[in-house]
């Protein structure tokens, strides 16, 4: 599964669970929801953890189910989801770290003494982290473009 498929699957689950009767709101929030999903990659990447897209999808869907079951008063889902991803990773840091180490050990045993090539494809976590940073950059550029230009008053010529 690719990262694009991961994002689409999670977005479909969000649409079904939280935006069932409000499709126009979902399409308005889609960009921010994608950024919230990508937040998982940023947090894992900052800790040096690598996961497959399937395990990331499983974690995110479990988190969404937990949010849905809590029936919390959510004012704006993208912001709430981004905070929930941060909390989820902080609370389960030991378990996720052990899972990431287990994955690294399996790769080491499987590959053995073979030296990896210098060129490699970005992992799912790296791709999500890059997506999050790119979206933050675009948001900042939009914000700076919307700032009004303040004209200074002309000084007196007399």
Describe this protein's structure:
The chain has six helices and no strands. With 158 residues, the protein is mainly α.
Task: Tell me briefly what this model is.
By secondary structure, the chain is an all-alpha fold.
Keyphrases for this structure?
mainly alpha; about 75% helix; single chain; globular
**Helix amount, in percent?**
over 70%
Shape: globular
* Share in β-strands: under 5%
Radius of gyration over C-alpha positions, nearest whole angstrom? 20 Å
How many helices does DSSP assign? 6
What is the average per-residue confidence, as pLDDT, rounded to a whole number? 80
Distance between the termini: 72 Å
- Outline the low-pLDDT stretches: none
Topology order in helix (H) and strand (E) letters = HHHHHH
Largest beta-sheet details: none
Number of strands: 0
Structural class: mainly alpha
List the helices and strands and how they pair.
Elements lengths: L2 H16 L4 H25 L5 H18 L6 H15 L1 H19 L12 H23 L12
Helix pairs in contact: 1-2, 1-3, 2-4, 2-6, 3-4
């Amino acid at each position: 599964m690719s990262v694009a498929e991961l994002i689409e699957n999670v977005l479909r689950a969000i649409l079904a669970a939280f935006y069932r009767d409000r499709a126009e709101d979902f399409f308005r929030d889609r960009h921010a929801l994608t950024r919230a999903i990508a937040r998982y990659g940023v947090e894992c990447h900052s800790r040096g953890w690598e996961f497959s897209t399937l395990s990331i999808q499983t974690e995110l869907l479990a988190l969404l189910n937990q949010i849905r079951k809590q029936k919390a008063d959510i004012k704006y889902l993208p912001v709430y989801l981004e905070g929930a991803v941060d909390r989820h990773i902080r609370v389960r840091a030991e378990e996720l770290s052990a899972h990431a180490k287990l994955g690294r050990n399996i790769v080491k045993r499987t590959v053995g003494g073979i030296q990896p090539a210098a060129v490699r494809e970005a992992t799912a976590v790296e791709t999500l982290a890059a997506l999050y940073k790119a979206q933050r950059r675009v948001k900042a550029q939009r914000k700076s473009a919307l700032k009004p230009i303040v004209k200074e008053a002309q000084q007196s010529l007399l």
